[in-house]
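Our working data are protein records whose layout never changes between entries. The record below serves as our worked example for the rest of this section:
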Amino acid sequence: PLVGFIVAAPESMTFTGGSGAAPWPTVSPDGRRLIFSATDAAGVSQLWMRELSSDVVRPLALTQGAIQPFWAPDSEQIAYFQDGALKILILSSGISRTVCRVSPGPRRGSWGAQGDILFAARDLPIQRVSQNGGTPQSVTTLEPGDPNTQHFYPSFLPDGERFLFAVAGLGPESQPSRIMLGRLGSSTATPVVEGLSEAHYVDPGYVIYARVRVWLAQRVDPASVSPTAAAPIPLAQNVSFNTNSGSTAVSVSAHALAYHSDARVVSDIVERDRRGRHVRTLAAGVEQGGLAL
């Protein structure tokens, strides 16, 4: 049966704010655990973990300031970015180690079944490094002569060889943004879905991605990852989504979907005088995510 529930921030904490990726909810591949980021009153963020069979959450030591966590295929380790490095934390022992240094502006990572880690960073192709450490190597090629095209959000398929990633056309002369399918050892990538979003593959043949603030499942052929004629299936609405970068606060496994809601308030914007009396209506029935003077 389908079961849904809300995960609250720990007591005296708030979910980490920022881009549409915060608070980086990340569900384990086996669907049993959830990692997220929360911030205390002093403004210090930390990763927390919850067993989905329990309502108890616990902080993960050594993860202060860590961002964009992602799981190992065995669901027993996580990787994350912290202090200019890609790090791994073994959950059973609490031991943390550095895999490699990373460039500023990381844009997600993914841990493959064969021990490879992919990650993205601003102005760089998708990078590949062994889980045992080493020097990252490029596995995609940026558009020549177009500095406004970026490669973001790598996500391995279950075989540990193929991966999805986003090509973000951020300039007026750039090609349209799209989700691509790449393969380790090959410089060729093929388009899957148009638009700028993170994307994940889920058996038995779905590509999960966002369009504005709706999370969709597109049926694809498992062998080619080519979309079928079937219309995308809406999975969740009002998902935190950054329209400029395509980052989304969503995580998916074969057993669970976790996301941070960004439901907006629909109301009137009115002007009042110093005594609180209505002066005029500036806008009626508008969706609001924030208002400033």
